[in-house]
Amino acid sequence: MLRLITVPKSLADIGSNQGEEHTKLCEDDIFDPNNLRILLVLILMIAYGAFIRTVIKIFELKIPYTVLLMLSGLLIGCLSNNAHLCEYMYTFTAIARIPPKIILFAFLPILIFESAFSITPHTFMRSVVQIVIIALVGMIITTFMTALIIQSFFVSYKWNFITASFFGSIISATDPVAVVAILRELGASEMLTVMIEGESLLNDGVAILLYDILESIITCQVDEADLVSFILLKTCQITLGGPVFGFVTGKLAVWALSLIFNDATVEITITLVATYLTYYIGEDILGVSGVMAVVVLGITMGSERTSISPEVENFVHHFWEMLGYYANTILFMIVGIVITETAITKIEPEDCIYLFLLYITINIVRFLMLLLMFPFVSRIGYGLTWQNMIVMMWGGIRGAIGMCLALDVYDNEHLCQESNIGPKFLFHTAGIVFLTVVLNGTTTNLLLNTLKLSEIPAGRIQDMANAIKQLELAQFRTVGMLKHDRFLSCADWGSVYGYTTIVNPYNRTIKPDPHIRRALSLVSVRLGSDDHFTECPECHAMVKNAPTTQEYMVMTEEARVRILKALKVSFWRQFEHGVLVEMAVLQLVNIASEAEDKPFRLVEAHDLRKFWHIEGCLPWVKNTFAKAFGLESEIFPRRPRNIFRRGMWFLATRTWFEAVIILVIFVQMILAIWETAYVFREKKGNSDQYEHVFLGLSVFFNVFYVIEALIKIIGRGPRDYFCEHKLNWLDIAVIFLGIAEIYLYSLKVDQQSALIFVKVFRVARAVRLLKPLVLVPRFIPLLDRKIHTKLFLGYDIGKGFVTAVDDVIKFLPQMVDHPKVLQKLKHALMRERLETVREMGIMEKENPGIAIAVKTRHASRAVLNQMRENLMELKADGLVDAKECDLLLVRLEENMKRLWKTPPSIAPAPSELLLQNISWIGERNETVEFFREHAQLLSFSFNEIICRADSKPTGIYIITSGMVKINYVPTSEVIDDFETVGELPCMELFRDLSFRHKEDDFFSTGTVIGEQSVLTDQRRAATVKCETSVITYHISMPVMKQALRDFKTDHKSLESSMWKAVGIRLAMAVFKKHPNYATWSVDKIRFYVERSCVPLGEQYDSIIIYEYISDILVIQGRVKDSFSEEVFFASQLIPRGVSEITLIHTSKLKTRVLIIPFEDAWENEIDAQDTSQFMSLLKFIHASCKLETDRKSDGLARRRTRGSLRSLRKRSNVKAKVKRHPPVTPKSSEANHGGLKKKSLKNVKSRYAKEKQEK
Length: 1255
Fold this sequence. Notes:
Blueprint lengths: L3 E3 L4 H6 L6 E3 L7 H27 L5 H17 L1 H4 L13 H19 L2 H33 L7 H11 L5 H10 L3 H29 L8 H32 L5 H23 L3 H14 L6 H34 L5 H29 L8 H9 L5 H12 L10 H29 L7 H25 L10 H8 L23 E3 L5 E4 L6 E3 L4 H28 L5 H16 L7 H4 L8 H13 L13 H10 L2 H27 L9 H26 L1 H7 L3 H19 L5 H13 L6 H4 L5 H36 L3 H28 L1 H29 L5 H17 L12 H7 L1 H4 L2 H10 L1 E5 L4 E3 L7 E7 L2 E5 L3 H10 L17 E5 L4 E2 L1 H6 L5 E5 L3 E7 H10 L7 H20 L8 H9 L11 E3 L4 E8 L1 E4 L5 E3 L10 E5 L7 E6 L15 H28 L1 H10 L25 E4 L6 H8 L1
Antiparallel strand pairs: 1-2, 3-4, 4-5, 6-13, 6-20, 7-12, 8-11, 8-13, 9-10, 9-12, 14-18, 15-19, 16-17, 16-18
Helix pairs in contact: 2-13, 3-13, 3-17, 5-11, 5-12, 5-13, 5-16, 6-7, 6-9, 6-14, 7-9, 8-9, 8-17, 9-10, 9-12, 10-11, 10-12, 11-12, 11-13, 13-17, 14-15, 14-17, 16-17, 20-21, 20-31, 21-31, 23-31, 24-26, 25-29, 26-27, 26-28, 28-29, 31-32, 31-33, 32-33, 33-34, 41-42, 44-45
């Protein structure tokens, strides 16, 4: 260390040392190299730990990592303690001689937070009562039972019961790091792992509590008279103060994390600082349990981990895993060094005998404690089996906490003189730590095997088999693709298969029992997870048979658990992609975890219904106020143009300004009550000592009310203030009362009656309290916002659940092999999905703004995700530098962060704009105007049928409000047409691409019905039925035929655009199930197929697959390979090896294909004179991409033209906050589908359309 020495400050000294400096370095004590060795030893310990992990992995040792570290520390301590062997090494082990408090403060917060943060919150909360019983009550029982045995048998130590209990509190704290690592490695029950780890976390705090209490008693720091109060105070500080403080700091840390977005450095720093500050402030400043505080901190942050940015969460977990690894490595090596350097220096032969007796004692005591608690803990939470109880008993390993407490006793100035306390405590604690780590830690694996707790469940075996199957499929496809590479075609593919083949780690061979004679072995043999065979006694053939009822139940339960886990994975994936809000993913995961705890139960729509129907005080308060005042919201005056008045208008129309006014009124009410009581209590002749105080308050309130009135009069205008809100005269009356009171008081009237009259004036101002009741309607919008926020969450939860079910159903055949179990679970998932979609449709009908807000947020995040992905691809390709990429990434993340504050409700746009959002209508201005002129509004009532199955097409229906149910029942005719000629059924459902099963689904606003029927002129295959009252746009069949004839160009037509819409809908279903695209997200698939086109014309009856074509999907009819004559039907992708296809047309059916080019295909130059098919297809692609780009630019221009939008709303007579469609009274005729209600739309020729054409 550098040390400054100050030169004497006298004038004589200064004069005699003019050439010398006032300070100088002490050359004999510049730096101690031994201090540097502590840092060097830390680095060497970490490096040695990495070496030990590598050795364990290479040689596949079954010894726990911490055991080898402790043995290494013992060896190092033996060498450093022997001055004759290695005196120089003693200087390198100085780290083991630092004060134990520093060790606790440096390493304990890391270990505790890492364990608490990684615990599954749901499992911990369900097991918390069991954990508290074992950790609190069990710890106290263990401590005093150990004390009784020690006092009885360790007679030579002459310990009394208090001293023995003091030692028992030290020796009873568990640290099962090795056991937890083994349980996680073997995939043991999560409940058992959480029980053991949770008990360890909590009983550390209880052990420190008992240690502090007993230490104070032994060292006589507490009087006997104050002993009870001291124990109660200490207990409250540890058991209540620590958790409360940890919860508060946890909430503060969560709040701080919620302000940061995608900044790994800052978010990791917040967790680290919160951990150490919580432990330090709790232990050193507040005097509460730092251990309990950090435990609650970790659990709180773990339960609200959505406050951490999704992209950063993995970094945070990896960071704490690394810190935990470093802390365990250093601690266990320090413990080993301390044992051999300090603990075994002052031992006697009888100490070794006592040590082995103590080892047996603590295991027996722990077993008796668990046996005593077993009747209670086995009936609550997850319960407790006797096998798990045995593992918990054997897993009670002692560790760093006990060693640090024993070292603290050894260094205690009051106890170090006692030879039978300090040294004995340290020796026995070190010995127990050594024996439990070495014996219990190394034999835990054997115990688990003996108790059959390490057996791999059948579900995990099946998951492994499915994973191996998928890897083998990927291996086969990749090898097949690489064989066509001209640079790799001559590779040794046999060796490639040898190098890339993976053996199933769970592969087990069934061996017949040799003790059973073959002729008598008529038994059911299980060869796989779901395969059952019976051996025939005569021919010895293995015949497959159905599983028993018990086996069927086991398979169903295993599949159910896998489905719930897959649902949770999907929930978190949606959160990472930004399409689920924080509260939504937490609620969904909690619901899935609760369902996982209940046998044979999946997540049901009933579990989510509480989020869709708002009940409680908010709706009641809103309805009560609305009925009482007859108003729903206050209408504000227009914002003035004057800048000064505009500021006053801003204040006068803010709800928070009214809240401040009401707060002041209530304060005045309290003072008025006080003043009223004072007036009637005082008698004549008494001096009014508070009169000046009351006068000052009166002046203050009066000035405040005058300022309020001036702000409102200037901001809202005199007419609005006095005429529209006549109760404002009450404010003026109160102001005049205040002025009159001040005037009377200023007259200096001495008569007591006059003063009482003045006081009555003051009390009369309490009538101002009537004003808040009138201003209640101002707060109705706040109630609306709260209700909308909850409904927004409910809609988001429903959409997240539907998306997760779709993801799980896609992979369900890979998760469940048995067909009966597969069908049952799929049916259950589809039922809950349909019910959820139905509830969401009803909510969208009742609250359209909520659905629009959720959809807007999801669409915005999907766009931003795609933009970020494209930006990263540009960076990977070298098209943008790292600096520019980072700048753009920051801008994108700022936009993502803005989505956190999106409003919970967005007013629906005019229904006319819905036409523009239809892809094949909005891509041209001419089509928009044409369909606006010819579209008709139809109103359908509940349960009315819009289109029946097997009915002729009547046109296009575009739902503008309400929800419909589309029901498909397969018929032999539909199936035959699809399988023989590739005729796609005319409907909007493409979930089952075989079309052999019944399907139902619900659709709401924005759904287009009848596109395919109009294009093919074929009968419908599904029925469309109204689930609510529905309003639709109807474009009749003659109008559609006219449009198909009129809007046609060389390379882009309305018919082609409509086929593209049908093709994209089919492609979304095909690509989700195709193995090449199974890992793609829905947004990525949608972006991929969006650049497609459908070429029409005789010149495309034969299509050469050029190099710019990525995929071709048959969307109607059949095509054949021009060379191999292989035929491909509708909903099939053309294999990559095909070079040319021929479309097979019939008189009844025209074949259509969807061509998907590569992303850069539209950038190729176009030669207008070239009429070849190569260039014609490129022109189709260019036309498609150009129209899409123009439509997006046009949409941007429309958003900027706010005045035009307002004029369109005026001309359509549609307001932003009312229902868009007034009731209509149509004709009742046979042509109107049995009473459909029609109303023609007027032609909307607005300035908005003219401006758009000019642009």
